[in-house]
Design a protein that fits this description.
With about 400 residues, this protein is an alpha+beta fold. The chain contains eleven helices and 15 strands. The longest helix is centred in the middle third of the chain and has 23 residues. The model has no long low-confidence stretch (mean pLDDT about 90).
Length: about 400
């Protein structure tokens, strides 16, 4: 899909080790309206601190991103590297330093190799003439097994525009951002307030309803740039075009979020956890997250064990209001428990068959009200332990 007014590049800087492209650049040919959300972790990487400071003005023109090193817990030197590398990019592109966002992913607590990054900058800027968004998606991967991309098109004022996004993430994934980077670009002209509202709503209904292992990273960044190069009349608040743009953006974000869960480290299952009948939506989300994050539940999914009792247990400690005599649970359309009790018969065998599938839905009805929530998660396998035991080697 052609996104007007954006250029891309990726090169090898040997940030962690040689052998792959690990430094990438997204450049808008004109200043773009921009906004971002960042990790809620109180331990924040240098790129997060610098980008959050710069994005406050609602604009950006370039994004520098690397894999292999998180530049987190690196003190003053880490901030110096973030500022210096973005300065080199700005100098090469002939734009202001403040117009350059920066993001990093990789190992925490290791100083960035500034000399190698600086040496790679000329080739990175020159590569904008021939690079693709695919190149950037591949360069930001760490334990990911495939690049994550999505694109959609819409219309405003009779003029077509596009929205495209990439993401990385497979482990250390938890709502309120995950250990993930996601970058969205659009050539639509969008009023800044409309862009900000649509983006934050979209993130809440996508990246903030996924979990792989319950860990929230130091580096989470989700950023959008819209440069208006499609030539449409600016999308204004309260219009059908604003509603359509928000829906399209949500679809892109949700697709990327689901791809992250499906690529969860060592994952063999993609599970949709639905909670209905809660006293309110907040309680529903608390219960859904407790189920989705439970190691006992996730290992049961991996073992294809229809152990519904573990799910009721997680709901019970979630903090949601619960009356165990009203609880009901289904795996897909197989009812396992009703009124807090096992339904009996062949439910165990039929539930086990559901859990053998690559994708399935767990529905818990609390029987108390109209609150509901959905969370997407994966199972917890032997491979997850192996990947994370050897991550730094």
């Amino acid at each position: 899909m052609d996104i007007k007014g954006f250029q891309f590049s990726a090169v090898e800087a040997a940030v962690k080790k040689p052998g792959r492209k690990d430094l990438a650049l997204i450049f808008s040919e004109v200043p773009a309206a921009a906004c971002a959300v960042f990790t809620t972790n109180k331990v924040k990487a240098a790129p997060v601190l610098l980008s959050a400071e710069r994005i406050a003005n609602g604009a950006a023109q370039a994004l520098l991103v690397n894999s292999g090193n998180a530049n987190a817990c690196t003190g003053e030197q880490g901030m110096l590297v973030a500022r210096e590398t973005t300065h080199l990019v700005a100098e090469g592109l002939k734009i202001a330093d403040e117009a350059v966002q920066v993001a990093s992913t990789g190992v925490i607590g290791v100083q960035m190799p500034l000399d190698r990054l600086a040496s790679a900058m000329p080739a990175l800027v020159e590569g904008l003439a021939s690079g693709t968004l695919d190149d950037v998606a591949e360069a930001i991967m760490t334990t990911d097994t495939f690049p994550k991309m999505e694109a959609r098109s819409g219309q405003a004022g009779g003029i077509s525009y596009s929205v495209a996004g990439i993401a990385k993430g497979a482990g250390m994934i938890m709502p309120n951002m995950a250990t993930m980077l996601s970058f969205i670009i659009s050539d639509a002209a969008v009023e800044p307030a409309v862009l900000d509202t649509a983006f934050r709503r979209g993130v809440d209904a996508s990246f903030n309803i996924i979990t792989v292992d319950g860990d929230t990273s130091t580096n989470d960044t989700c950023l959008i740039m819209a440069n208006g190069q499609a030539g449409n009349p600016p999308i204004a608040a309260g219009t059908p075009e604003a509603t359509a743009f928000g829906e399209l953006l949500h679809d892109v974000l949700l697709s990327l979020a689901k791809q992250i869960v499906k690529d969860g480290e060592g994952a063999t299952k993609f599970v949709e956890v639905r909670v209905t009948g809660a006293a309110d939506d907040g309680d529903a989300k608390r219960a859904a997250l407790a189920v989705a994050n439970s190691s006992l539940v996730k290992t049961a999914f991996f073992g294809q064990d229809a152990n519904w009792g573990r799910i009721f247990c997680a709901v019970g400690y979630s903090g949601a209001r619960v009356d165990q005599s009203r609880l009901a649970l289904c795996f897909d359309d197989v009812c396992m428990a009703r009124n807090g009790l096992f339904v009996g018969g062949d439910a165990e065998a039929r539930g086990t068959e559901v859990l053998k599938k690559r994708e399935f839905t767990v529905t818990v009805d609390l029987g108390l009200g109209n609150g509901s929530a959905t969370v997407f998660t994966s199972d917890l396998s032997h491979e997850y332990v192996s990947i994370n035991a050897d991550y730094r080697t």
